Amino acid sequence: MCSYCGCDSIDVIGRFMSEHVEIINATGDLRRAVEADEPPLVHQRVAEVAGLLGPHTGAEEVGLFSVMKRQDEFTDYIGQLCGEHVTLDDLLERVAEATDPAVRQHLFEAFEQALRTHIDREDNALFPAAAVSLVGPDWDEVDSLTHDHDHTTGRPHAHQH
Questions:
Q1: Were both Cys, which of 14, 114, 134, 154 would link to 138 (CB 3.0–4.6 Å)?
Q2: Rounded to the nearest 5°, which phi and psi values hold at 7?
Q3: Burial class for 129, CB neighbours closer than 10 Å (0-12, 13-18, 19+)
Q4: What's the rounded Cα separation, in Å, for the pair 37 and 101?
């Protein structure tokens, strides 16, 4: 998690960084289930990670990403991050579907590495860039889009209407 620029003091970025911690912690629970070779527990833990990851990546894409990609210097990077979201979902699904313990372990390791790399790219590159590139009206739009997404997906959140 970025701790050098203060971007986590921006509400939505602080939220996304906190969610990253939750996702990493849930991934640790999944790792232990994979290592114990307990398929029912693996499926439960995959569902928990997916239940955190899906709403999180959706909120990022609908809110922050949609506003940032309007700036040409971020368009390609945002596209890469969105592609990584798809890859993470695919890898996580493949972990759940794997029946061979060695294959499941390999897929899990690929998922965890991809997740950690992805989070690093957001926490230490995109989020600090957003903090210095977006201005007041941009943040209002990010907050509004993210709030609307939360309502649509049923994610609990504090109301600031």
A1: 134
A2: -65, -25
A3: middle
A4: 6
